């Protein structure tokens, strides 16, 4: 491989044609990517060359963004800021995978991931938000909510886990509660990971075939395709009534998981004025075709 790189470099010294030089630069970069751990793994698995190169580019971009996340986390800790990031979306939209990439290299003492089980008998008799309030971020901490109080906006009414009165009460209260939290200094970001019906079915099928992922399937998941339109109705109601100027819904096109991960991280970095941001060696401007604020005129995937 070294000989190949030396040959390319020798050719570049002798060639004056700019188009040919660009092609040699591309070839040199491609070989560099193939020498990485991800590149070699892809070749061993006999993946298509283009797919291998895309995988390497994704890994390299992810690492650059994760370096910025570490800088952001340090800023949050040192300045005693409180950050909460909510991840919502249909089943198999890629929320858990995105959170995993967000937290992969963070200091575990300075963040938490909250994924609450169904409420206990005691919790069902409490003020609805009470069990979530226990997990709000402390000073210097980032908390990632893998689903949140918005269960009552979609999952609970669709599957009959709450009464119409409880649903309506929640929808009226949540904008005021979020306003109070933000007014108290909490930095809040609300993501909706959006997928098509076809993508969801494909991912469910993959889970069924993969013994390492079968635990992700639940009785609720199995009805998700059947209840697609009803979920869509409640999702649109949620957006319409809980999307505010101070707490907007951020829609992430997650039909491509890897792109969704990169762009959602990029969005968070773009929103918080952490130290060292100007020195970033990666773009902090999210792709508007992948990440955008909710708007009633938007054409949503789901």
The CATH class turns out to be: Alpha Beta
Helix content: 40-55%
| Overall SS class | alpha/beta
Q: Count the domains.
A: 1
Secondary-structure map:
Blueprint: H1 2-14, H2 18-34, H3 37-44, H4 49-78, E1 82-89, H5 95-103, E2 111-114, H6 121-124, H7 130-133, E3 141-146, H8 155-159, H9 164-183, E4 186-194, H10 197-209, H11 219-224, H12 228-242, E5 249-253, H13 257-271, E6 291-293
Parallel strand pairs: 1-3, 1-4, 2-3, 4-5
Antiparallel strand pairs: 5-6
Helix pairs in contact: 1-2, 3-4, 4-13, 5-13
InterPro entries: P-loop_NTPase, Polyphosphate_phosphotransfera, PPK2-related, PPK2_PA0141
Function: Uses inorganic polyphosphate (polyP) as a donor to convert GDP to GTP or ADP to ATP.
Protein name: ADP/GDP-polyphosphate phosphotransferase
Structure in words:
With 302 residues, the chain is of the alpha/beta class. The chain has a single domain, classed as P-loop containing nucleotide triphosphate hydrolases (Rossmann fold), CATH 3.40.50.300. Helix content is 53%, strand content 12%. The chain contains 13 helices and six strands. It has helices spanning 2-14, 18-34, 37-44, 49-78, 95-103, 121-124, 130-133, 155-159, 164-183, 197-209, 219-224, 228-242, 257-271, and strands spanning 82-89, 111-114, 141-146, 186-194, 249-253, 291-293. Strands 2-3-1-4-5-6 form a six-stranded mixed sheet, sandwiched between helices. Helix 1 (2-14) runs antiparallel to helix 2, helix 3 (37-44) packs antiparallel against helix 4 and helix 4 (49-78) runs parallel beside helix 13. The chain is globular. The model has no long low-confidence stretch (mean pLDDT 87).
